[in-house]
């Protein structure tokens, strides 16, 4: 279990001392967010999305699966389930700037964090496209910046309905297909 920090906010340096216990440890403005290991549908959907993105990913961009840190400050470190980043922005250990796409796959324990806290952080740090996948329906919700500089829901597709993304690059995503044989 994470050590009590005596009321002070956590930092990315505290994350380095977290146990290797299968949990995902993330920080939002110094608050520790701990998630249990994801289930089969979650993992399958993330993997098949990463593969679909990788197949059409243009040169200069890289598709990365969790766990891989997006560390934009000492008090913010997130690990999107899938991300797309500029190759020139990546280090061997982490991404120190906003990715061009962050994707979270919902788990029963992550719904509130993914749809509220993480969405707000991704918006604030300037992630141009944020996708949320629900492996139970299956469903894809796509958020992009509107004219007011805030995220707006630009697409929501379910089952076998396709989504033809333009950001971060052209790709067709069909939520139901991302479950493979688990459909």
UniProtKB/TrEMBL annotation:
<dbReference type="InterPro" id="IPR011335">
    <property type="entry name" value="Restrct_endonuc-II-like"/>
</dbReference>
<feature type="domain" description="Putative restriction endonuclease">
    <location>
        <begin position="15"/>
        <end position="170"/>
    </location>
</feature>
<keyword id="KW-0255">Endonuclease</keyword>
<dbReference type="Pfam" id="PF05685">
    <property type="entry name" value="Uma2"/>
</dbReference>
<dbReference type="GO" id="GO:0004519">
    <property type="term" value="F:endonuclease activity"/>
</dbReference>
<dbReference type="InterPro" id="IPR008538">
    <property type="entry name" value="Uma2"/>
</dbReference>
<dbReference type="InterPro" id="IPR012296">
    <property type="entry name" value="Nuclease_put_TT1808"/>
</dbReference>
<keyword id="KW-0540">Nuclease</keyword>
<protein>
    <submittedName>
        <fullName>Uma2 family endonuclease</fullName>
    </submittedName>
</protein>
<keyword id="KW-0378">Hydrolase</keyword>
